[in-house]
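Hey,

The postdoc asked me to send both predictions to you directly instead of through the lab channel. I've kept everything plain text so nothing gets mangled by the mail client. Protein one:
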Amino acid sequence: MRRAGSLVAAAALLAVSNPVWASVAPAQAPSQASAPAFQAAPVSELVAEVDIPYTKFTLDNGLTVLVHEDHKAPVVAVSVWYNVGSKDEPAGKTGFAHLFEHLMFGGSENAPGSYFTPMRNMGATDMNGTTWFDRTNYYETVPTPALEQALFMESDRMGYMLGAIPQETLDLQRGVVQNEKRQGDNQPYGLNQYKQLEALFPEGHPYRHSTIGSMADLDAASMETVRDWFRSNYGPNNSVLVLAGDITPAKARELTEKYFGPIPRGPVNTPAQASVPTLAAPISETTRDRVSNARVEISWAVPGMLDADAVPLSVGASVLGGLASSRLDNELVRGEQSAVSVSASNGAFHRVGMFDITLDVKPGQDPAAVEARAREILNGLIADGPTAAEVERVKTQYVSRTVQGLEQVGGFGGKAVALAEGQLYAGDPEHYKKELQAYAAVTPAQVQAAMQKWLTRPAYTLTTLPGEREAYQEAAEAPSGANHTPAPPIERVARMPKPEIAAVANVDFPAVQRTRLSNGVEVVYAQRDAVPATKIAIDFDAGLAADDASKLGLQSLMLDLMDEGTRTLNATQLAEAQETLGATISTGASMDRSVVQLSAVTPNLQPSVALLADVVKTPAFAASELERLRATRLSRIAAERTQPAALASRALPELIYGASSPYGRPFSGNGDEASVKSITEADIRADYAEWIRPDNAKIFVVSDKPLSEITPVLEAEFGRWTAPAVAKGVKDFSGSIPATTSRIVLIDRPQSPQSYIMGGEVLAAQGTDDLLVFNAANNVLGNDFLSRINSDLRETKGWSYGVNASVAGFAGRVPYLVTAPVQADQTGPAIAALNTQFNDFLKGGKGVTPTELERTVNGNTRRLAGSYETSAAVLGAMRTNDLLGRPDDYPETVAARTNALTAAELDAAAQAALDPSRVVWVVVGDASVVKPQLDALGLPVEVRSAAPAAQ
């Protein structure tokens, strides 16, 4: 299980294509007299668009192979799914499946060393591995000429693995897993999952323990015990291999027979059976954690994905708390305003599911009263059932997302995943079709019946209140008690050498076309026709940097309000219209750009663009909505002050840029308490008039339809849009950026099992400068799994789950940001180790090696083939090219320039840009544990509280 711990606190700002999204929780505005109707294509028409043709065959050793041809890009997705997850772990072996996910990246008998090295070298994209209750999977998308090597690698870790796991590797990966656990536990509410599983499932139930498992079980495992686990579960007859993309079934059969055919069949693994338990009586529990908001979580164990009630329960969850127009949102967030956010979901696993309701209580409100009101709303839905319109909106939204998600061949949501999941869990690669048909056919009565059957049973309710975190069993500081019982040597089996990679052709980036609407707004367009979908981004030259220092958070609050109602649609109507059309409209901001985006299925394009235009041109900015969102924003800021990465990214910008710089403010864009409290309705309207206007806009489009069909749709909605009389906004970068010297700011966050380290310096370079050579050098130093710093702190020392250093994608002076979540007892040594790596690389004569140069050049050129497979990736590249002043065909120029790089050029670029003596470090951790370590470094240390200064 890959936990979603933040590796870069300012990830949302690293590229213009990754804005800080405004939350879609529309607030109630005064009702409009007559809201326009939006006619959508029938769900049946959208369902008919979904088809993944495939060929299926089984090797003699039992390996099931599924092949899907898709020649839109010269890449092949390789996805291997093992029919083993944490539910299959017996008592005493919890966490084994997840541990093996780590071990299987560490090298195999005929491909020794980290698998990230050859995968990076072959240009793999969308590469990762995950473990969950029901499965373990590995996936990568590779250029077609690298397919044979990828299959060699996957077959080697399936059939020739155990001889490559020495005791030291086993111990190291135990330590990495412990840091992964710390990283998850260290988050607000990070311990709640353990409580939920133990309450819902009885002792001995396969789903009772978390996927990350017991650290004691991992420490107690001997080498031979670990080997037996692998032999029992990872054979070819317990696996599914999917190849999707630029390949034919005949070639797939030839290659799989060659590489996987010789692997002997393993024991038959029958996935653990698991009944759906019912609590004897309701269970309510209260806990305390270092959180800003009280949270109430109500959950039930329900049937798994193959049960007839799975789809009706999922539809019911969406109606209750999944849609933007959900009942909980309408009543608790917009109406009564007793909660700042709500959600309901049905997590359907193989054997069982978990239906969850989550209520984040507004400060000052009574959690028990909010819980009682939520139960009233649930009971009302069960008693009366959902409306036909609600169910239809859920159907349209689900099918629309499915259609758009299948543009990708691999990754963790594309065609390969759909085929693999169906085969693994249902024995049918086309199970996705049956699920779509179930959604299309589900009725309100079926939803009501399923909710009545399963959600009137006793529930587990967990209330988390702000306070000191209660004692819990932390991961050990190191796996010092690990079992070191010797195991006999593995007799290795010789096989063919690893195949070489043929020449990879340069990427063929889609042709970019340009036109202008009659009012002068430029349209930048590219075509992608793999799925019937259109993506539109309207970029405005504003962003978080447009905020005045006295009104931090104004731009993002104004953008939040834009999709909270228009002059013709109140917030609920706006949400319902999007859901009816299967469209998503989002507002957001990077540091330099503000954006309103539309994602739509093309059959509903015209009404979707009309809805987009309503949001952009005629937002209501109702005073009541401002007050509601102000309260939500203040709650969000309070939440940031409890989160390690958010605390660091709030503090660092001002430390390195200075308070007067437009870049010297919290990277989240949420502002601070004082500024948010001071923002008026007049401020919002003035900010909109200055920045969200046609003479400050550019429209980017990627669609399956040609530009000749797109332009009239845009012209009809935006061609007559005129700029207001007020002057266009101007960002002020005239102030100087202060020179920095290395120091440490320690933000005291008691009871932190892990410290979050974030360092930064402002480079002399602008984002609009040519940074290709420096970024290549930094792949070696900081911005890659195989980088010097990650290899040292994660793979050698085992102190961290992941370390990164990279340049944020600003247009002006760019920051170089280092992020390193590390176990608390190694905080000081980790900063010392980072400085050692930087100084050795820059000044110590340990520059780029020939091996690192080859890996970087190969990886950065070969990966281009898979980098622009989807319309979202193409749209992001077009917008980034525009922001940074690059030509439209920039992606096609990268390979030739990269192939010509030398180690000396990389060294010189890094040496010219970086100076470790200017890095300012922010450390978020328990000062009682961390400060003595930091004092020993000989740098000035300033201690701050995580709480805000008195206003």
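Protein two:
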Amino acid sequence: MKLSTLSLALLVALGVAGCTNTTSVKSLPEGVTLVAEGQQQAGELNLPYKKYQLANGLTVIVHEDQSDPLVHVDVTYHVGSAREELGKSGFAHFFEHMMFQGSENVGPEMHFKYVTEAGGTLNGTTNSDRTNYFQTVPVNQLEKMLWLESDRMGYFLDAVTQEKFDIQLSTVKNERGQRVDNQPYGRYWEQLSQALYPYGHPYSWPVIGHMDDLNRANMPALKDFFLRWYGPNNATLTIGGAVKAEDVLPLVQKYFATIPAGPAVEKMAKAPAVLTADRYISMEDNVHLPLLSMTFPTVYAGHPDEPALNILGDILGSGNNSLLYQSLVRPQIAVQAGAGHRCQELACTFNLTALPHPASGKNLAELEQLLRQNLQQVAERGVKPEDLARAKARVEARSIFGLQSVAGKVSQLAYNETFYGDPDRIATLLAAYAEVTAEDVMRVYQQYVQNKPAVISSVVPRGKADMIAAPDNFTPRTFDPAEATASESLPTRVASHTFDRTAVPKAGANPAITLPATWTSELANGIKVLASISEETPTTSLLLRIPAGSYANSVEQAGVASMMASLLNESTKNYSTEQMSMALELLGSSVSISADDRDLNVFVSSLTSNLPQTLQLVQEKLLNPAFSAEDFNRLKQQRLQSLAQAQKNASYLAERAVSQLMFGDTIAGQPSMGNEQTLATMTLEQINSFYQTFVKPAGAQLVAVSDLPQAELLPLLANMAPQWQGKAPELNLALPAPKVQTGAIYLVHKDQSPQSEIRIVRRAMPRDLTGEFYQAGLMNFTLGGNFNSRINLNLREDKGYTYGARSGFGGDKQVGMFSASAAVRADVTRESIEEFLKELNNYQQKGITAEELAFMRSAVNQSEALRYETPNAKLGFMAQMLEFNVGAEFTQQRNQILQQSTQAQLNELASRYLSPEEMVIVVVGEADKLKPELEKLQLPIIDMKL
């Protein structure tokens, strides 16, 4: 395998290498076989692992990583929506929900409770090809995780009830409403898949399922689906963290070996789509901007042509140097345009997408021709050496950064084993990209894209069907319920019991938590530095926070700070935007600049070997911005279009309403990007004046996490911008609370809303690390701060009104806010508000129980092990220390507060801050339909216009 200079530098720094099979077998538990072992040897970049198989077919992968006292457990089943049948779409995703509802020895909702109480995090995801369940916990909780995962693999079906089935079916429908039906362009992929793939193709239906199919779902079919696909022989259990294989395997054998294998599972045949002519499809949606896409069928994941097709996608539509950006976005013909190669197990597609800029006057038919011209330009332009170099550098850097967390490592191992039978494919992937030539890219372009048929999709605003690129010439066949076939009836598999599975495994002693060791300094220009060493990967992450955020703008100039931040990501006096992007990509580095309420944030991610060059580019961005009229006008127009598009997003409207009600006509009540009026009148002079006044080093804070020691890192930081001097004016901000009618409903109209957004809010205390704000967060944990909170269990798990409900305190050092929120089915908006108010009133009056207090203490205390694992997590932790001028000992103070906060103290906070009579209720939805029901609440209703 040929390695680039970048790869070789990384290998020297990491000192790791490729995988080999081994025949060396130590004493293993009965029924456990060692299949392969990936070892650390000099020569290649890799992820070491040991791969085993149980007699029932379960594949087990163990990755030993002693860097943090954590363990990540992942169970991946090789079943996704592609394994479903016509008319039964959504089953795999539905099962993802059902598998959290308890099993024979684990009660309803207890999976979430056990993991949360252990201080861990968990989730499950489903795509077309697999379903995975995963949790990250302190390492002393490993046995409990194996008990939980094995119980739902082998002892699940007897715990399924009709009530659980009905509630989770409602939850899935709510999820579809929130993520698909109530989102602009939400149904685009669903329609595209129906047109691209033939009737009955495994990818012709959506992962979340068609609503009609979900409505027909029943328990017998669900059980048959489980029996067919959820056996151990169709699963991979991957365990990574501060473990040793010899300790893990007896536990795996204990909990999983007695689960019988399921039916044999054959690999599905690769099935890329085949088109003989262009297919035109269209749909009307609740959108502001129309969308045009062209989709070409290509290969399948793992095909030898995949890397070359990915690079072709980069050339056409990835980043500022791409053809589509240069020909469509830069000249403001399109607000957005991109291209890429999207791969799944059975089929891949090459996609081009563009949203026309209204000011360009281009319709979708003209936009289609421009996309075709860009495709033809590939033939004329060819492939340049820098195209290959930047693609390869990005893949190499991504491989390194992917090793920063145990979850990232385990996810890679599980994915690669599931789809390729080879847990560690880092070296294989790097070699595949290293071998791609310009001729390869041109060959795949000619073979799969040039003059080839495609699906051309138009999405237009409702009532504007005349805007489509061309009349539809294809109508997908729809499923007729009369064609439904009965599920294959399979015998129930009965797992034996060799021990008392009802007993919850006891955790060992809590692992010792080592706080990141830090050092501090101050640069000559006044920048305070807080840094930590992290030797897991040869990388450096930096966060520079300059007090130049949105709050420094006047109301009349709202959005100036945000616009300035965006312009700092554009051209400089010595680099065009494209040259800067290319320079960073060739280094495998990224520099991202953004503004929040208080600060201008500069986030830098670099391979340490390239840090000096990266810091030179950071200096160029910060000290030599071009602030060109071309960049400014393009960004201004994009923001105006984004604001118009946001009016179609219910969640955005809800947050806008909350900001106005809580902060009124102050700068905090304005959108951070500005509003239509301030953007229309914004000038480059305002941008430059703000930059000259506020972008100063004195008072700025720099947080660094690197594998370099202080003696090597500090000189690099000091040399970043020594000529940068000065101090910005102190921010003198007043945010008086506006007069609002508490206890009232503020109703914001949004047409065509299958869901309603609810916010229940009030002003509260400012943020702190060890005071009342922190204590209020502890109090809220039970109410709405975790999955098993009262609010979420009520509205989601009991009533099925929403995909998720929550509450919490937020804010900054000056002002804070309490908010309870959910997106609910429109037809239960009133009922949802009633339940919210019931929970708030009950908690405000009666408070937390002793049992809930103990659960909260355990969950918060043990979660500390997860807070410092990755460089980014360390950056966030240390940024707090600088912001509040505290040392790492603040965590000890927090632990004391956690353990010493009494039930009476937390209940006093609840009593003081959670009275609904002191809150306002925001509802976003179809006002004319909602108002008659909302009036039954006998609360004042105020129509609110944004």
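Summary for protein two, as requested: The radius of gyration is 28 Å.

Thanks,
C.
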